[in-house]
Amino acid sequence: MRSYLPRQKGDREICTGQEAFAQRRKKRKRQKLLAKGMITLKLIADHEFLLQCFKELRSEGGWGAGKDGISFASLSPGEWANVFRTLSKTLLKSRYRPLEARKVPIPKPGTSKKRILSIRSICDRVVAKALYTLLEPHMNQLFLNGSWGFRKERGTLQMLEQMKRRIQETGRTVLVIDDVRNAFDRIRVSDLIKSHRKAQKDLAKQGGKSSVEINDSVIKLIAVMAQDTDQSRTIGIDQGNNYSPTALNVLLHYVHDLPITSASHFPFWFRYADNLAYLCQDVPEGHQVRQQVQHLLGKSKLELKGEGGGIFDLQRDTATLLGFGLQIKDNELSFTLTEQAWNNLELQLAESHNALNPSKIALEVITGWVNPK
Asked: Could you say which protein family the record assigns here (predicted)?
């Protein structure tokens, strides 16, 4: 098994004043590159930046050790500093490969089911965190207003309020609800990279301070992370990877969001990660929208689940979306938490006591219940 562990223990993070000066100089160079709108592998692989990402992950509580058995507390600060110097060199030489993850079943927010959490090694989590930290703010500039999931300050309640306003403005009362079947597991790596290439070009074309150049080496790193331990892998990405939610948004931005918005009679659409909803004029239009969306997704070998959703006239039907019951009452949309959502919350909180990190699992259950992922 590969390891980025230092050979000797007890080393300090900064050995000399000369090294401290060199680190400050590197930091200034990194800031200049960011100011110029350039994201390179050197920025991601900078060992000080990796150490910063490590500290942020550690302060967030984090998960336990990966399959390598190394946790945040396993090494001293000086030892971790040496780890990230080694990891930095590995990244810059394009020799970085993720380690195998440890699999742990945890409660799935909003349902009574469980999902398998892949607990990565600390180093793999740090690389994903570094990638997310540098790319997400720029990718977020590309996303359209109908995209809500995995975006800062854009949660379920804000999406439902937007839907409420759209109903009042347009008089549309028919809601189509569906989601992408096993989205993370069925993404083709080639489609993921293709969508990031498009984002790379679109970000470079933006004017002013919004313009940013993403180096090809960064796209290659995304491919390495997507293919995981099997570099011949062609389908599926790890949902637990820190960057994967943003990667999914980038893919669906080009596969779903842009095409359906550019359609001649596109509906008012709302996408929360892989959960989809469309406001239509009537039921026949709802069927047309479903067919259109299925066609768009099919180009990337994705498909609608066709289960648990449907086409609802909110003036007489109650639709369930992300744990909320939706219905039009007194000429406006009302949304309340369903009884099933309350029952699931109680069940998941009880099960969190048996988890590896009970307090973190309980917090994820509560936040995920309000803002499902």
From this structure: Belongs to the bacterial reverse transcriptase family.
The Cα-based distances of 363 to 148, 185, 371 in angstroms read 21, 25, 12
Q: Which of 28, 34, 36 is nearest to 208 (CA)?
A: 36
Q: Which of 87, 101, 100 is nearest to 130 (CA)?
A: 87
Alpha helices, H only, 7-151 = 17-35, 41-45, 47-59, 77-92, 122-142
336 - beta bridge partners? 325
Predicted confidence band of residue 13 (pLDDT cuts 50, 70, 90): very low
**Could you tell me the two tokens for 294?**
């299925």
pLDDT tens readout for residues 69-109: 999 999 999 999 999 999 999 999 999 999 998 888 776 65
Which amino acid belongs to residue 9? K
* pTM of the predicted protein model: 0.85
Strand partners, 105: 116
Which residue's entry shows tokens 């550019």? 262
Is 80 within 8 Å of 51 (Cβ atoms)?
yes
Dihedrals phi, psi of 179, to nearest 5 degrees: -150, 165
**Residue keyed to tokens 């098994």:** 1
Q: What are the structure tokens assigned to 198, written together?
A: 């498009």
Alpha helices, H only, 253-357: 258-262, 283-298, 339-351
